[in-house]
Design brief:
The complex is a heterodimer.
Chain A lengths: L2 E4 L2 E5 L4 H7 L12 E3 L3 H9 L6 H14 L7 E3 L2 E6 L2 E6 L6 H12 L3 E5 L4 E5 L2 E5 L14 E3 L2 E7 L4 E4 L2 H8 L9 H17 L1 E7 L3 H12 L5
Chain B lengths: L1 E2 L2 E7 L2 E7 L9 E4 L1 H9 L6 H12 L3 H17 L3 E2 L1
Antiparallel strand pairs in B: 1-5, 2-3, 3-4
Helix pairs in contact in B: 2-3
The chains are: A alpha+beta, B alpha+beta.
Chain lengths: 237, 88
């Protein structure tokens, strides 16, 4: 059975459809270590996924259900999935946080144009954030939204940038109180009491550790210029 | 009446936050920020109770006049209903 490395965990996958293996191929774990998790989607998982409104081919539904199986177990291991788009730029790990449709992907695209090769998209939609020695790291996974932007890597998460649409581009620091409201809407509802407790602990660490920004922005390149100037400071473009 | 889900309540960056266990992925109403005064009522709603009982509990806990306690409970329950968090 092939094994994969997701967020530093060794994961054994028993797939029904070859497509799942193909999507996960860049994340193959060849270390030979014992798996931390075995993911095998059941008929009940697939039925649950359809009930949640997940559409697509059986292979696509299996793909989504497999990630759900994984992320529902993560909080007790000090990790969770965050609905965000994460980029690694120089020493920064920047997460764009917003509900679907607001423009996370657009901001990421604008940042890619601005920073070129110095920017790597860690995950365009659903990174895993894991706490290691008190520091949050964002990880690439194959589950990364329509664009499929992901890289098998991790980056220390330094900045949470809450995206809002506006007529004029501006960015300002945010208080933990303000950011909490935005962050709690972008997490996966925990399925056990232990996971719920850990999820709240992780949120607390994230909000205390990262710099918090409110980015009110257009969809034009100036949005990335304004945000980059504040977040990246003196780093040269 | 009681809350639809079991909630875990913890302090996050100095605020009380309640998170539902076993909510569906849309997550609607699965995380609630609680003012300290309201956390007591929220906790009480984790078990089956009534509006009258909540008023009595609050009166006793906070030594409030009945009218004041009833008004607080009414406002709190309205918020819970608005967020579709109650099984009644």
């Amino acid at each position: 059975m092939p094994k994969y490395a997701f967020a530093g965990f060794c994961v054994d996958i028993e797939a029904r459809h070859e497509w799942l293996y193909r999507c996960c191929e860049p994340y193959l774990d060849t270390t030979g270590r014992a798996p931390d998790f075995t993911l095998r989607v059941t008929e009940a998982d697939l039925a649950r996924e359809r009930a949640y409104g997940t559409g697509g081919t059986p292979a696509e539904i299996e793909f989504v259900a497999t990630y759900r199986r994984l992320v529902e177990q993560l909080p007790v291991y000090d990790a969770m999935m965050l609905h965000a788009a994460v980029a690694a730029v120089n020493r920064h790990g920047v997460a764009f946080v917003a509900p679907s449709g607001v423009g996370k992907t657009t901001q990421l695209r604008l940042w890619k144009q601005q920073w070129g090769d110095r920017l790597t998209v860690v995950n365009g939609d659903k990174p895993i954030v894991r706490l290691l020695n008190g520091i949050p790291y964002a990880y690439g996974t194959p589950w990364s939204g329509k664009e499929g932007w992901n890289t098998p890597m991790c980056v220390p998460l330094t900045d949470l940038c809450f995206v809002e649409r506006a007529e004029v581009d501006r960015i300002q620091p945010m208080s933990t109180h303000e950011a909490l409201g935005g962050l709690i809407k972008q997490i996966v509802p925990p399925q056990t009491v232990a996971c719920a407790e850990k999820t709240l602990e992780l949120l607390d660490v994230l909000l205390r550790h990262c710099r918090l920004w409110r980015l009110c922005c257009t969809m034009s390149p100036s949005a990335a210029q304004v945000a980059s100037a504040a977040i990246m400071g003196d780093d040269e473009i | 009446m009681k809350l639809k889900y079991t909630f875990v309540i913890r302090e996050v960056v100095g605020e009380l936050v309640a998170i539902a266990v076993g909510a569906t992925p849309d997550g609607v109403g699965s995380v609630v920020r609680l003012k300290p005064g309201v956390a007591y009522l929220f906790q009480k709603l984790q078990q089956e109770t009534t509006e009258q009982q909540l008023v009595a509990d609050l009166q006793q806990e906070c030594e409030l006049p009945p009218d004041r306690a009833a008004a607080i409970v009414e406002k709190f329950l309205a918020r819970m209903r608005e967020q579709n968090l109650l099984d009644e």
